[in-house]
Write a structure and sequence with these properties.
Layout lengths: L1 E4 L4 E8 L11 E9 L1 H11 L4 E6 L5 H8 L3 E5 L6 E7 L5 E5 L7 H14 L5 E5 L10 H10 L5 E4 L2 H9 L8 E2 L3 H8 L3 H6 L1 H12 L5 E5 L5 E5 L2 E6 L11 H14 L4 H16 L18 E4 L7
Parallel strand pairs: 1-4, 1-8, 2-6, 4-5, 8-9, 9-10, 10-11
Antiparallel strand pairs: 2-3, 6-7, 11-12, 12-13, 13-14
Helix pairs in contact: 1-9, 6-8, 9-10
Length: 319
């Protein structure tokens, strides 16, 4: 079972344009899609679709339409009561795949809500294959809350994956190895935010990204999956490093692609695949998601890991 935490869930509204976005102009949308989302929720959706049991933990009123939508979709949900419904995030997608996101901050959480979320995760730590802490933190949550959670849940025997950014990510890295999860999934920009590297270089150069990821492994993180957009992803562990190149993809929306990649890796791990096979599955899931509208999560039948090319990386060679 995969347990996911989405501390700042969102109603994801995707507006698809028939022409490039023009600032200050009036444009008609080709379509509008709304879906209960957030990083952890997206991973739970992918998990249920693949036949892996999942439990989504999040703050929300228990009778909120957001929660009811997840339950109707077959996603087991544990909502910790919080005042105010989930935030609304707006994504604007242009014909060439360019994606613009407008994310709202979300309702504030109290210490009581944070304690409730922590206890909900702790009760399920021993029975879960993975616990995934994903997304931004809501107003009211300390920036070091993910670091606190990792330290707490590791004592319960849980295997932990973290996918976050900005201040929560920096706080987590600052507290390594005490706060080291078993898996981290940064992108190139996020790697650069705490290594001091060039974001564009890390996104375009898999070897440079892998070398940056090594700094996390050296500080106690077991595995780093670094997604690099159209350049695929790298996987770094204490036993080696690999780069995977995605198949040609007509990009429709990149929203949720990183979440799908993370699920692909977790699925490969649960199925006891080798590291290179887990990486191929991660990139295949991400590519499939990028070819779908909005935050649509790919069905396993749409995922083609056999089309992904994986190679070993020699970290001793020059960048």
């Amino acid at each position: 079972m995969i347990v996911t935490l989405t501390p700042n869930p969102s109603l994801d509204r995707t507006v698809t344009l028939a022409a490039p976005l023009e600032r200050g102009a009036v444009q008609r949308a080709e379509s509008v899609i709304s879906q209960a989302g957030g990083k952890g929720v997206n991973i739970s959706r992918a998990s249920v679709s693949a036949g892996i049991p999942s439990l989504a933990v999040l703050p929300a009123p228990k009778d909120d339409p957001f929660v009811l939508e997840l339950l109707a979709a077959g996603i087991d949900c544990r909502a910790v009561p919080n005042e105010g419904g989930p935030r609304v995030n707006i994504t604007i997608t242009e014909p060439d795949g360019t994606t613009t996101k407008l994310n709202s901050p979300g309702p504030a959480v109290t210490e009581e809500v944070l304690i409730g979320l922590t206890e909900s995760l702790r009760r399920r730590a021993a029975s879960a294959d993975w616990i995934v802490l994903a997304g931004s933190l809501p107003p009211g949550a300390p920036v070091g809350w993910y670091a606190d959670l990792v330290a707490t849940l590791r004592e319960s025997g849980a295997r932990l994956a973290v996918d976050t950014s900005d201040a929560p990510l920096r706080a987590l890295v600052e507290r390594l190895p005490e706060s080291a999860p078993h898996l981290m999934k940064p992108n190139g920009e996020e790697l650069a935010s705490f290594t001091g590297g060039d974001p564009e270089l890390l996104e375009s150069d898999p070897l440079a990204a892998a070398k940056a990821a090594v700094t996390l492994v050296e500080r106690g993180v077991e595995t780093v999956l670094a997604t690099l957009g159209p350049n695929g992803a790298v996987l770094v562990t204490g036993n080696g490093a690999w780069h995977a190149t995605p198949p040609p993809t007509s990009v429709v929306s990149t929203v949720g692609a990183g979440d799908s990649s993370l699920f692909g890796y977790l699925l490969g791990d649960i199925r006891q695949r080798t590291p290179d096979q887990r990486l191929a599955l991660a990139v295949a899931y991400g590519s499939a998601a990028a070819g779908l509208p909005g935050t649509t999560i790919p069905h396993p039948s749409q995922v083609k890991p056999e089309l992904v090319s994986v190679r070993d990386l020699n970290l001793t060679q020059g960048g």
